[in-house]
Design a protein that fits this description.
Radius of gyration: 24 Å
Strand order of the largest sheet: 2-1-3-4-5-6
Number of strands: 6
Oligomer: single chain
Number of helices: 10
Distance between the termini: 48 Å
Length: 217
Amino acid sequence: MTRPVRIAIVDDDALVRSGLRMMLHGTLGIEVVGEAADGAEVPGLLDAHPLDVVLMDLRMPRVDGITATARVRARTDPPAVVVLTTFDTEDEVLGALRAGAVGYLLKDMPPARIAAAVLAAAAGEPVLSPDVARRLMASAASVGEARARARASLDLLTGRERDVALAVGRGASNAEVGRELYLSVPTVKAHVSSVLDKLGLENRTQLAVLVRDAGGV
């Protein structure tokens, strides 16, 4: 960009907003043009200022950052949203990214890194703090391993047992499984007992979790 990158800071802590403004305004071609103390104020902020990037906190009293991010991204020609928070739980990270955030940063990052991330986001590049990137990679690896183990378990079953297991995993009752697979209820019960015994499971709930981990295949 030939002009400064226009940003807004959304955070319920006035000291944080003030510190970020002092740190970022005029730095590396960044112009802070607006602030908000809650996600509920973001629509008005966007109406008042043309923005390139919104720095968004997550936990705010009325409208949280994930909800506010989704609302920002639903607008016509929206600015990029970069979450800047102290929280990095898996649910919050994934929730923010699914809502449309282009980046997720932690507030303990060096100022120069935050400024560089703002510029990258304005250019359409995704930005993640190193800790968040490592958490996402570990989560993806964990999910992949769990799915592989679950699918290997289902491979131990016969074709009919597998059909019954998948139906149970979808929450079907014995009668519903019977109607779906043209089996009597006693036969369904026998198959369920055999599946639980083969897989070393205690109950239908554990079987449903296993099917979910396998991806519902």
